[in-house]
Design brief:
By secondary structure, the chain is of the alpha/beta class. Helix content is 44%, strand content 15%. The N and C termini lie far apart (38 Å).
Length: 260
Amino acid sequence: MAEARRLQGKVAMITGGASGIGAASARLFAEHGASVAVADINDNLGPLVVRDIEAAGGAACYLHLDTVDEDQWREAVQRVVERFGRLDIMLNAAGVSGRMPDGSAAPRIGEADLGNWNRIMDVNSTGVFLGTKHAIAAMQAAGGGSIINISSIYGIVGSVHNAAYHASKGAVRTFTKSAAAQYAKDGIRVNSVHPGYVDTPMTEAVHSNPELARPRLDETPMGRFGQPVDIANGCLFLASDESGWMTGAELVIDGGMTAV
């Protein structure tokens, strides 16, 4: 376990915690002293993350959570508070890409399917809304907290691909600012994180295909794809008291992609 524990005594809940950025954040938060509730729909990988945390001496539990189901949200937050006594950190990391299974881009707007649009908006936007909504009362009871919403570079800039994904992540960006303004006086900070191209299970089909991966690398000045821990390190800062005067902000972690 880490010697300098930046989250000692805090309780965190992480959606999408079974893999990718969520899993890396769960492990890192636990290393820094947080008790972690790993929430996901992947009932195979989620418990493995918990096992890793516990094997390293940390405290964790797994919760099955479909982030678009409000009843499941109510139950999940209640279980976290019953298990660990409070809730200090909510990391809304669950999301979907909207790309085709082979990694190719979704259809252009004129050919887009409404059902696919709604699915992406439900998971990427509504799920973040529900996670924020149901964290508030528990954080008010704890005297404050930190809500971290994973958006994307494509919540800031657009591209010719995947308009539904861009719209969903843009919604996360501006929703975060509204939530930050509404609950600042309660000591609840709300910030968004905007990853660039990161190697995760969600991007594997793209990054494993040289024809699709090369343009992304060419767009990234630092010349490599991000790793989940690169984003988790930023989330750790936002979860900790070190960012205590930071709310409604956008933390961009993209290898320089949006700088050029």
